[in-house]
Amino acid sequence: MVRPKRLNAVVPILSEILKRFWPQIDQQRGAILLSSVCLLLETAMRLLEPWPLKFIFDRIILPGFDANTARSFALGNINAMVLLTTLALALVTISTLRGVFAYVSAVKMSIAATHVMTEIRFRLYSHLQHLSLSFHNQAKSGDLIARVTYDIERLREVTVVAILPLLTNLLTLVGMLGVMVWLNWQLALVALAILPLFALTTALMSRKIQKVARKQRKREGAMAATAAEAINAIEVVQALSLQNFLEQAFASHNQKSLRDSAASQRLRAGQERTIEILVAVATALVLWRGVQLILTGTLTPGDLLVFVTYLKVAFKPMRQLAKYTGQIAKATASGERILDLLDTVPEVRDLRGARPAPPFQGAIRFDRVSFAYDLNCETLKDLNFEVQPGEVVALVSPSGGGKSTIASLLLRFYDPQVGSISIDGRDIREYTLASLRQQITIVLQESVLFATSVRNNIAYGSLEASDDEIVAAAKLANAHDFITALPQGYDTILGERGVTLSGGQRQRIAIARAAVRQAPIAILDEPTTGLDRHNERAIDEALARLTRGRTTFLISHNLHAVERVDRILYLEGGSIVECGTHRELLQLGGRYASLYHSQTREPSTCQDRDRGENYHVVTVRSLESSRV
Ligand code: ATP
Questions:
Q1: pTM of the shown model
Q2: Residue 365: pLDDT above 90?
Q3: Domains 10-342 and 358-439+519-597 share a fold
Q4: Which whole number is the average pLDDT over 150-159?
Q5: Which has more pLDDT, 594 or 497?
């Protein structure tokens, strides 16, 4: 968590935020200008507010506060009456105008800030979507979501709730000090005498409050993480009866947060009361000296009234200064988090001069490809192979052999550090990312469905797909029948992550989505893992239809599923160690064969029979030399 900064450290960051978001701010120039003008007018009205009362005291009540004038006033001294009415009306007018200016200023600034933040939020979201997988693998999704929602909101809120009032209050304070010095500089000095004490108390208390608040925010973060973890894994939690155990962990954080919250409230209340006492002391001092000045004739009672009113009004914003600066400091931390994210450059992006890919035939070639997620450990080592258009190739390996990594490289989720990958003879980096991925369709083991209608879930494969194409894709995926049996058919809204459907049904919708894409290349990453036999058969059929005529990579641990593919690449430790058809590899009697036998637990029937015949079996050595 980014710590809130002290105000002096905040200023350069604030100006950086302003500079970076200037284009968005500039678009709201009109609203911000109007808000600023109203802010100045509001300040002027605030300064004027006690003046009608001063005139009432000095010109009407006190100059002739003896029985005669009082009587003549009571009998209807027109001048005094007119003056009194005018001043009373002025009081109402000034207060009303102050309210109107404050309203316009706040509303305009609020709308401008909302517009700016909406723009920034969109930019941030769009940027986030384009960041490479290497970034997303390391980032915490909760943290990224917090930046797009909470941090942006905090920045917006602080503009309206803290910066604007702080500006108004500072302007008012400066104006009031000016007027006080102009009225009587000696009394102004007396009023200011309390300021150092006030600043010291505020600084000390604010530091304590910030410390507790920081602890509290950390605690809240831990609570959110505990809750999120339990809710995301609710099936496991309930199955293992971990509820009580996790509740205890949550309760402990909750209790500590309660204690911190009470401490923070105590400190705040203490700070308020201390400041009230200081204001009382300042008021008493001003009254004490002010009355003396009145008695010597250097000050009018109305002047003293203005002083005392200003004192009360001026100290109120000062009281809130600590609160505002705290809020601004926190918002600056949010601003920094947003800038950090915007400054992250996607590792994989369109290269300069990249052009849209033409329709692919589907010939794929990995040429001396080496790749490492972490530079200390190579995941793929000097990989060489070619796949013909329309060929179905299975990638088989023990767990962690690098199968999914090959698929990720083809989709350009990552770029290899060494070597190149080409489609139809051209390096895939020459094409724009969007046009490359447009021509590759995928089905994953964990089919991700979105919380929208079945129709939309399928259409996400190709946003231009017509209704007929969607239905055709669903039929290809053996999904049409169960979709039409759903309450609203294709318009049925699926729950979060499609939880209202069975695993097999979800997978069939994912296959329909892959089919509607009409892409020449398909990647099927463990598409039938975890399904029962009935579903597996239905999905196998669907996949056979899906892969027809497409260059296909099938990644599977289930070796029955790969028996009929055109070719199997068997990988170990990031290298291809065997390559051939199922029969050829069984014939070879190598690593694939022993994996197959360990899965089927049946002795090979063709191994001995076929050994020695002229099968196209390639071991790693010949692979390297011939670049299969
Ligand atoms: P499985 O059959 O278990 O799905 P796989 O053959 O598909 O495995 P990969 O997922 O490609 O293998 O992983 C190959 C190696 O790369 C593994 O050692 C894995 O730990 C590592 N790896 C995979 N993804 C990442 C990542 N995002 N960051 C760092 N290392 C990774």
A1: 0.68
A2: yes
A3: no
A4: 80
A5: 594
Ligand 1 atom nearest the C-alpha of 557 is 2
164 CB-near residues (< 8 Å, 6+ apart):
35, 39, 105, 106, 109
403 lines ligand 1 (CB under 6 A): yes
Which of 20-24, 78-82, 215-219 has the highest average model confidence (pLDDT)?
20-24
Our answer on whether the CB atom of 165 is closer than 6 Å to any ligand 1 atom is: no
For ligand 1, atom 1, the nearest C-alpha belongs to 399
The residue nearest atom 16 of ligand 1, judged by CA position, is: 379
User: What's the confidence (pLDDT) of residue 7?
Assistant: 54
399 lines ligand 1 (CB under 6 A): yes
Q: For the CA atoms of 66, 69, 71, 72, what is the dihedral angle to 10 degrees?
A: 170
> What number does CATH give the domain 358-439+519-597?
3.40.50.300
Residue with the smallest CA separation from ligand 1 atom 11 is: 402
Q: Distance, CA 475 to ligand 1 centroid (Å)?
A: 34
Atom of ligand 1 nearest to the CA of 406: 11
Ligand 1 centre distance from Cα of residue 264 (Å) = 47
Q: What is the pLDDT of residue 104?
A: 93
CB of 137 sitting under 6 A from ligand 1 = yes
Q: Would you tell me how many other CB atoms lie within 10 Å of the CB of residue 7?
A: 16
Q: Whose CA is nearest to atom 15 of ligand 1?
A: 400
Q: Parse the chain into domains and list their residue ranges.
A: 10-342, 358-439+519-597, 451-513
Q: Where are the alpha helices (DSSP H) in 50-163?
A: 51-55, 67-76, 78-130, 133-138, 141-146, 152-158
> Which atom of ligand 1 is the closest one to the Cα of 555?
7
From the options 3.30.360.10, 3.30.365.10, 3.40.640.10, 1.20.1560.10, give the CATH code of 10-342. 1.20.1560.10
> In this structure, what token pair is assigned to residue 593?
């064969």
Sign of the dihedral through C-alpha 375, 378, 379, 384:
positive
Residue in 334, 531, 522, 340 with CA at minimum distance from that of residue 443 = 522
Pick the atom of ligand 1 nearest to 405's CA. 11
What would the DSSP string read from start to end of 169-185?
HHHHHHHHHHHHHHH-H
- List pLDDT tens digits, range 530-583: 566 666 677 777 787 888 888 999 998 878 878 888 999 999 888 888 888 888
Crossing angle for the helix pair 78-130 and 301-343, nearest 10 degrees?
10
Say yes or no: CB of residue 574 within 6 Å of ligand 1.
Answer: no
